[in-house]
Design a protein that fits this description.
272 residues; alpha/beta; Spore Coat Polysaccharide Biosynthesis Protein SpsA, Chain A; two-stranded antiparallel sheet; globular
Amino acid sequence: MILDGHCRSAMPTDSANDLQAVILAAGKGTRMQSDLPKVCHPIGGRAMVCAVVDACLDAGCSRVVVVVGYKQELVREALASYGDKVEFAVQEEQLGTGHAVMSAADAFDPSMRENADLFVLCGDGPLIRTKTLETMLELHRSMNAAATLATSLIDNPDGYGRIVRDAEGRFSRIVEQKNASEAELAINEVNPSYYCLNAARMFGALEGVTRNELTGEYYITDVFELLLKGGERVEVIDAVPPEDILSINTLEHLAEVDSIFRARHRAASGTR
């Protein structure tokens, strides 16, 4: 694991409930049929990862750590205008989302993790809204949760991890589609990868994540079940509008999301 950028490991002692973010941006995005890293494809005239960084900063994050890997120099260039608001960690191998987050561990001083909340987000979701992050954070802190997930209810959940709840309606686990039973495949509450976690509890749980038998990868989604088994509180809130989780896997998808993104900004600015 390699960390660089302007690492502020010596955070002040009065940093209770400091808010930071980890954005996963190391993948290639092979289905885009392009050598460009997926997060560098333009939405609204900028690399799509910029919209995710903006949402985090607007929600109050004091720093954003972006995990890079494939053609990382292009991701760094796309985010250069943020200066020291954005730092970088390197995922040397693509071994899953859990491994990607662990690649950023050196950015977070162990002595400061107890008082830090982290958004963990994917860099290829440019329709993310600051309001959604604020809603998730409010629940997370009001319930003193170890982790909170914002979910989405969609008509066609194909391809998404499903949110499994217990008989009382509380979060039980996330099951990936490839591992889901027929009953679980019928669930339309899905995981769009919007997470808020206490840094200490997250990194502690990541130590217990093992490789998935089917893929050989380490998944951040396993953290939530491990936290529950350890007696920690995990909250779930249906707060992500279905439109916001549109997948970008083709140039056609890219054009669709770009159109929605531009329309939102025109509406926000009062222009046509």
